[in-house]
Each structure stands twice: as C-alpha cells, then as structure tokens.
C-alpha cells in the first residue's frame, strides 16, 4: 500500500476515533484520560493470549493477539489527537512511522518496547506497534479492517447501554468480539459502506 493510501485510511480511523471518544464523553479533550495506561495494560493482557509462561504449554491465539493490537491502536490514536494538530498531519506522520518498524528479538520483546514507551513517556510508539504487527503477521489492510470493525462494535456497545450496564456482551455462548470476526470475514472492507454494513451485521446478530 502506498504511503498516501495508508495516510488516507489512517485519517478515516482518526475521524472514527474522535467520534467514539466524543460518544463516551462530549468533552473528552479536557478529561485527561490515561490512554497510555490503557496501552500498557492491553500489552500485558496480550502476552497472555500470545503465551509467555515457560512452565506450561501454551499456543499463541494469533487472532486474539491481533484484536488486542487493534484495541491498542484505539488508545494510540487517542494520544495522537491533541486538538491542535490536523488529522491530515497526524495521519501522514503515523503512516511514515508505521513504515519504519522497531523490532525486538521476538514478539514479546517488541511488545515490551511498546509498553515501555507508554509507561515511561506516556506516548504511543507507532514504530514498535509496527514491529508487533510485522512479527505477528498483521498487515495494514487487516489492521484497517479490524479497526473499523472494532470501532463500530464499540459504538454499537455504547448505543446498547454499555456504560449503564444494560449491554449483553455474550450472545449465544460467544462473546461479541467473536461475532464481530464472523461479520468481518464475510464483508468487503473496500465497500464505501463498510462501517455501516458491520453495524447492520451486529444489529442482526444481537439478541433482541
């Protein structure tokens, strides 16, 4: 994918992230939310899905790791949105950084670089994020598809009473994330109505 195309899709994700954050709190810019903390906590949760315990047999749950990486992207985009820099500039900067991955010796070490930047500098290290993508086999197109899907699911959750506790996260014995992946697998991410189609798929699957 060309840097221009990547920047265009990142700008779409920035727009969606701003809308999502505004849905959660209309004045989210002024709340000083700890996005960096959300990143390193997600990193720790991701390691459990990847497997790091040498004293027991573990097999990486690659799809779940990818979903966790996309969750981190939500927080990373939120850090980069500062209320002053245009989305066009932010998207071009991120596109450039994602083209230059920082790599540790293996996936857990690269993930620790991402977590370390969040803990010590309260920043989103997009280079280390790109390194994690590369080592887990997550392409930019997959990331975009999964981001739009997860962002749409987050908006769906809010509309169905997530903050008030009314939302049902498990449907027919499966979590909503699993239903989301089913929907994403059967839709065309190149469709101009992609996000709308994901939302419609969730509406159809959600118990009335």
Furnish the topology, listing elements before pairings:
Blueprint: H1 3-24, H2 35-50, H3 62-80, H4 87-98, H5 107-121, H6 126-136, H7 140-159, E1 170-171, E2 174-175, H8 176-186, H9 194-205
Helix pairs in contact: 1-4, 1-7, 2-3, 2-5, 3-6, 3-7, 5-6, 7-8, 7-9, 8-9
Protein name: dUTP diphosphatase
Number of strands: 2
**Main beta sheet, described?**
2 strands, antiparallel
Specify the CATH homologous superfamily of the domain at 3-144.
Type II deoxyuridine triphosphatase
The number of helices is: 9
Level-2 CATH architecture of the domain at 3-144? Orthogonal Bundle
The helix-strand sequence is: HHHHHHHEEHH
**Poorly predicted ranges (pLDDT <50, ≥5 residues)?**
none
| Overall helicity | 55-70%
**What is the 3D form?**
globular
Distance between the termini: 40 Å
Tell me, what is the CATH class of the domain at 3-144?
A: Mainly Alpha
Overall mean pLDDT score? 91
Order of strands across the widest beta sheet? 1-2
Please tell me how large the radius of gyration is. Answer: 17 Å
β-strand percent reads under 5%
Name the structural class: mainly alpha
Assign the CATH topology of the domain at 3-144: all-alpha NTP pyrophosphatase fold
Written overview of the protein:
- It comes from Motilimonas cestriensis.
- Pfam families: dUTPase_2 (PF08761).
- InterPro entries: dUTPase/dCTP_pyrophosphatase (IPR014871).
- It is built from nine helices and two strands; from the N terminus they run H-H-H-H-H-H-H-E-E-H-H.
- The protein is mainly α and 208 residues long.
- The protein has a domain at 3-144: Orthogonal Bundle (all-alpha NTP pyrophosphatase fold).
- Helix 7 (140-159) crosses helix 8.
């Amino acid at each position: 994918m060309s840097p221009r195309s990547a920047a265009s899709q990142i700008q779409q994700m920035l727009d969606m992230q701003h809308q999502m954050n505004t849905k959660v709190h209309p004045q989210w810019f002024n709340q000083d939310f700890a996005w960096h903390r959300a990143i390193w906590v997600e990193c720790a949760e991701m390691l459990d899905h990847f497997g790091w315990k040498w004293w027991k047999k573990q097999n990486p749950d690659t799809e779940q790791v990818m979903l966790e990486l996309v969750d981190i992207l939500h927080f990373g985009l939120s850090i980069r949105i500062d209320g002053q820099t245009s989305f066009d500039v932010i998207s071009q900067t991120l596109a450039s950084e994602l083209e230059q991955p920082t790599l540790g010796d293996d996936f857990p070490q690269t993930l620790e670089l991402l977590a370390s930047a969040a803990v010590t500098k309260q920043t989103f290290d997009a280079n280390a994020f790109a390194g994690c993508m590369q080592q887990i086999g997550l392409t930019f197109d997959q990331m975009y598809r999964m981001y739009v899907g997860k962002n749409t699911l987050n908006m769906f959750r809010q509309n169905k009473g997530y903050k008030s506790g009314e939302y049902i996260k498990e449907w027919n014995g499966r979590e909503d994330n699993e239903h989301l992946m089913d929907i994403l697998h059967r839709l065309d991410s190149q469709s101009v109505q992609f996000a709308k189609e994901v939302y419609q798929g969730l509406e159809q699957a959600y118990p009335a």
